[in-house]
Amino acid sequence: KTRINNLILRCSDFGEEGTCALAAALSQSQLTKLDLRECGIGTRGAEALAAALPHTSIEKLFLSETHMETEGARAILKALPKTLVKLEMSGDDFGYAEAQYLSEAICGSRLRKVDISINCSQSEGMQMIAQVGGSHLEEVSISKCEVGALVQHSSKYPHISWRDCSL
Fold first, then answer.
1. What whole-number distance in Å separates Cα of residue 62 and Cα of residue 47?
2. What are the pLDDT digits (tens) for 24-72?
3. Contact 99, 129 (CB under 8 A)
4. CB under 8 Å to 12, separation ≥6 — which residues?
5. What is the model's pTM?
6. CA–CA gap between residue 165 and residue 28 (Å, rounded)
7. In what helix (H) or strand (E) does residue 17 lie, and over which residues does it extend?
């Protein structure tokens, strides 16, 4: 196993093929932090990553603006490692389906911090995520998202960051 704990590849343009190669090596690593923000991993790369994630010890995963689409997001969210405590998936046009997958992932995890800012999920999706927050969830950032009537009840959800949200 490698001795690298943090792998930050932000803004690297290795795309789906590079992500598939990285995924193949993940189970041989001791990574606790993986940052693939703005790497264009795509759906196929996300699915390869999802196959590897359960076999890792990753605690912090950053996958913002990766162009993984619904199927890739679903695969990732269903395969989060049990060790994960922080997840960032902002700027990937989350819809209602992705919000539902994230809600299910939060319920079955140790996640403490989730950032899904700058996503276009409808307010019903954001409400679903807000209501999931269990005792382990400390912070959910939904900045610049559509929250609808949910913002009127913001005091019910102290763990949510509401910056620049729209109705």
1. 15
2. 999 888 999 999 999 999 999 999 999 999 999 999 999 998 888 889 9
3. yes
4. 18, 39
5. 0.84
6. 41
7. helix 15-26
